[in-house]
Amino acid sequence: MSHRDRILDQFTRQAAPFASAAPIRDQATLDRIVYAATAWPEDTVLDVGCGPGLLACAFARVVRHATGIDLTPAMVEQARKTQREQGLSNVSWREGDIYSLPFPDSEFSIVCSRYVLHHLENPLLVLKEMKRVCRPRGRVVVADMTPTPDKADALNRMERLRDPSHVRGLTQSELRDLFKEAGLPEPEVQKYRMECELEDLLSRSFPEPGDADRIRKMFEESSESDAMDLAVRKEGGKIYYAYPVAILVSKKSEQPV
Hints:
By secondary structure, this protein is an alpha/beta fold. The protein contains ten helices and eight strands.
């Protein structure tokens, strides 16, 4: 199975449970990204790998127009459902390849992605595409997991078991370097934790048979050592954890960097 097919398989199955997951829908977290992007009423936004459209719709409450693009038809259908639920008219959706965005150069004033780069075999190519379709002095915004360097391997091992479409969560330093390689100015960075409960996570994941128990064991072990940088804790017979997430915002230069 190609990685593209793996993404389509996973996110077709994940579309509905992912869209309804409380940590993914959390409005305060979505608004944090909109605020970090310094969105204004005159802005036009592209959400790359938009999934169920939650971030695009959060931007649409502030900006003139938001567009979401995703490879997976089931996710785009969830995005349309999100738009209907929120009664928004200034959002549009596209199915398409984010490695080759079907938009002209400098089309948008804000180009963002959330929880996308860790699924990509070539995140640099996508970041270059995000830069291409962003206007000079526009903002390129990435929100993604950012494990510490000494714990990244352990987190990535678990994530690949949980979600076979996961490739690699980059450290904050690696993401900064990616922006530099893409020709974008040094990004400003904000960090936060996305809190979740393990069985809720597994209920909307589709690991291979037997891997769910391996994942539970990894979380049990990490509750003592924090080996995965997830701040795992036990409470009331349940296992809670918190993904380390960074929001990186770079203002595109007027001249090539």
